[in-house]
Amino acid sequence: MRIKVTTVHYVNVEIDESKFTDEFMQEFRSDFYNFWTIGDHVKHIARLYANGGVSEFDKQHFIEGYGAQCEMGISVSTDTVDSYSEYASASGGDAP
Questions:
Q1: Is the pTM of this model over 0.90?
Q2: Residues 39, 15: contact at Cβ < 8 Å?
Q3: Residue 3 near residue 87, CB atoms below 8 Å
Q4: Quick one: which H or E segment has residue 3?
Q5: Which is more confident, 15 or 82?
Q6: Pairing mode, if any, of strands 67-68 and 75-88?
Q7: Among 36, 42, 51, 62, which is most buried by a count of CB atoms within 10 Å?
């Protein structure tokens, strides 16, 4: 049996915008990703959280490119995670 599962994470991200200075943004672009807005960073942090790269509980957690969450004023939480499954039998037909 093969099961394909799609998950949807609803992530709340809070940041201290004052930490995202022009200097920080330029350094981040040169070392990591071509992000030009704080919104780019918020989306990236949400994706990292959904993939286990950001902690909801450990505020000292190190995030590559940002440092310790608390130093950048980063806080994350999730409201819900929805999962949807698609089943396929070995013969390729759908199962309930």
A1: no
A2: no
A3: yes
A4: strand 2-14
A5: 15
A6: unpaired
A7: 42
